[in-house]
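Human:
Take a look at this sequence-structure pair and walk me through the tokens.
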Amino acid sequence: MTTPASSRTGMLADADRDVRPVHARGDETKPSWKTTELYLYLAAVIGVLIASQAVGGGAHNGSDYFTADKAWWYITLLTIGYLASRGLAKAGSRTRDADPRTR
């Protein structure tokens, strides 16, 4: 029994095709610029800088209650908190690196 050429070609094409399952690869977390935590961090830093500039001398004998070193200390604390939150968010992330040397 002979089969038409088109069905034989179809069978050969199916046999030659790679049938391994394709797994979707992706990251568990979004890039930092797509998250609200980055924008909240930047808003907090800007708020600290504005508050440091606005609160100063004046009616209180010229003493500065929110000095620059205190402002930078708060910015440092905010940065540590932001970096820790991003580190926790990325802790379980998978990589998209397809280089076999890094596996």
Q: What stands out?
A: The radius of gyration is 29 Å. DSSP finds three helices and no strands in the chain.
